[in-house]
Design a protein that fits this description.
224 residues; alpha+beta; 12 strands
Length: 224
């Protein structure tokens, strides 16, 4: 496995405490995989037989409702750990994970092997528990937002959160490289595509943002 991948994994918040021998063993367990845009990493009802580390690109993680509607729970970016529910008893996937960008790369580690690896390291066990807890808190916050905030507020909150996590400052403006469709944003915010289009166009007409298929530029994040 090349040194760039090793360096990326070594800098991951979960693994930065590992000794060289532990890191070498972890990488021996892993398989490097690449995915194209819209290609699934896994789908519901498949075995939860791998844990993944996202190295490049972005992944949408979500579920499909009984009506067949896609519900996006999270957008994941490099260094994210996902597919980890197999570590806590999930045998078959409930969620899907689909690649969003032209090039996406992950490390896949067999769940059983990773579980044994985690059990040898108390610090790693605690970090993974905290990571799962953080993901659950994010889901709870999203549920509260859907209950207590209107559609426009949820869409603006999504823009602010994405800018704070993934945005790049350009003077007073904040640039977000966007790989989401307006339907994706609707699914993330519990709104409709038409509502997303209306809100984005309103913000653009008021010169609060500029957007096209590949980017969103927020004029002033503090006043959005």
């Amino acid at each position: 496995m090349n040194t760039t991948i090793q360096r990326t994994v070594a800098q991951h918040p979960l693994f930065e405490h590992l000794q060289d021998r532990q890191m070498e063993r972890l990488l021996q367990l892993a398989t490097y995989k690449k995915f194209s845009r819209n290609e699934p990493v896994f789908m519901p009802c498949e075995p939860s037989d791998n844990v993944y580390i996202l190295l490049e690109g972005s992944i949408k993680l979500g579920a499909i409702s009984v009506e067949g509607r896609e519900v996006i729970k999270h957008i994941l970016y490099p260094t994210a750990l996902f597919g980890e529910m197999g570590l806590v008893g999930e045998e078959m996937r409930h969620d899907f994970a689909i690649a969003l960008e032209r090039e996406n790369a992950v490390l896949a580690i067999p769940t059983a092997d990773f579980r044994r690896f985690v059990h040898t390291d108390y610090v790693l066990t605690i970090k993974i528990m905290n990571a799962i807890g953080s993901r659950l808190r994010t889901a709870e916050h999203k549920l509260e937002s859907m209950v207590f905030k209107d559609a426009r507020s949820r869409i603006i909150e999504f823009l602010k959160e994405t800018a704070s996590k993934r945005g790049r400052r350009v003077g007073l403006e904040t640039l977000i490289r966007n790989h989401l469709t307006q339907q994706d944003i609707a699914d993330l915010t519990g709104t409709s595509r038409q509502t997303v289009t209306t809100v984005l166009n309103e913000l653009r007409s008021n010169n609060r943002i500029y957007f096209n298929r590949s980017k969103i530029l927020i004029r002033d994040l503090a006043t959005l």
